[in-house]
């Protein structure tokens, strides 16, 4: 089988505190009700309501979410890499595995180029990227129902991120909110 499914995991997250503070600048900053203790963030009812309202109003109102970043580690094939490149804004790639510096290190010129193309359909790339929650929201909305199984895996992963139902997809119906 040529296809190897996407593997993805979050390695870090940052920016929630600063983003929530920035969210309140146009409004009354004193009404913020979230708490921060070491690495534990508890988003208050007022902050949650305002964040959801701004996000639903569109990117021009939800620009504070650009400040929330996650670092993700991915293993994927070239086909998914090409589709992922659609989302260059809001994604910073820190590094990607390199065959040129590993198994092809003694090759140059056309021989190097030909070897890099060989077995491209089965090669798995390893990458660490930093992605903003605003970009993750865009990706989730545009790719949730995509036919490619790697997009399904990616969107399933997005649903597991902290504060998904507030900062990425406040329209998401959570059964916990029904009681």
Walk me through this protein's architecture.
- By secondary structure, the protein is of the alpha+beta class.
- The protein has a single domain (7-170), classed as Gyrase A, domain 2.
- The chain contains 7 helices and 6 strands; from the N terminus they run E-H-E-E-H-E-H-E-H-E-H-H-H.
- The strands form 2 sheets. It has a 4-stranded antiparallel beta sheet with strand order 1-4-6-5.
- Helix 5 (133-143) crosses helix 6.
- The radius of gyration is 20 Å and the shape is elongated.
- The N and C termini lie far apart (46 Å).
- Residues 174-179 have low confidence and may be disordered.
Q: What order do the helices and strands come in, and which of them pair?
A:
Layout: E1 7-14, H1 16-24, E2 35-37, E3 40-42, H2 45-57, E4 69-77, H3 78-84, E5 91-96, H4 109-117, E6 124-132, H5 133-143, H6 149-159, H7 164-168
Antiparallel strand pairs: 1-4, 2-3, 4-6, 5-6
Helix pairs in contact: 5-6
Structure classification: alpha+beta
CATH class: Alpha Beta
Helix content: 25-40%
Question: Could you say which overall geometry the principal axes of the C-alpha atoms support?
Answer: elongated
What's the main sheet like?
Answer: 4 strands, antiparallel
Q: What is the number of helices? A: 7
CATH fold field value: Gyrase A, domain 2
Radius of gyration: 20 Å
Strand order of the largest sheet: 1-4-6-5
- The total of beta strands comes to 6
Low-confidence stretches: 174-179
Give the terminus-to-terminus CA distance.
46 Å
Instruction: Give the count of structural domains.
Output: 1
CATH second-level architecture: 2-Layer Sandwich
Averaged pLDDT, please?
A: 89
Q: How much of the residues is beta strand, in percent? A: 15-25%
- Compressed to H and E, one letter per element, the order equals EHEEHEHEHEHHH
């Amino acid at each position: 089988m040529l296809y190897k499914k996407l593997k993805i995991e979050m390695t870090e997250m940052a920016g929630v505190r600063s983003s929530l503070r920035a969210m309140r600048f146009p409004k009354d900053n004193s009404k913020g009700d979230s708490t921060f203790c070491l690495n534990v963030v508890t988003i208050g009812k007022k902050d949650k309501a305002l964040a959801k309202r701004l996000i639903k109003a569109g990117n021009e109102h939800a620009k504070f979410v650009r400040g929330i970043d996650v670092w993700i580690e991915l293993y994927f094939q070239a086909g998914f890499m090409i589709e992922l490149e659609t989302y260059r804004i809001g994604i910073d790639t820190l590094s990607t595995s390199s065959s040129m510096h590993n198994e092809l290190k003694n090759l140059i010129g056309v021989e190097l180029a030909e070897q890099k193309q060989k077995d491209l359909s089965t090669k798995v790339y390893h990458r660490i990227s930093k992605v903003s929650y605003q970009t993750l929201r865009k990706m989730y909305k545009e790719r949730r129902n995509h036919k490619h199984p790697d997009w399904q895996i990616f969107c399933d992963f997005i649903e597991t991120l902290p504060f998904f139902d507030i900062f990425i997809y406040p329209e998401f119906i959570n059964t916990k909110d029904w009681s």
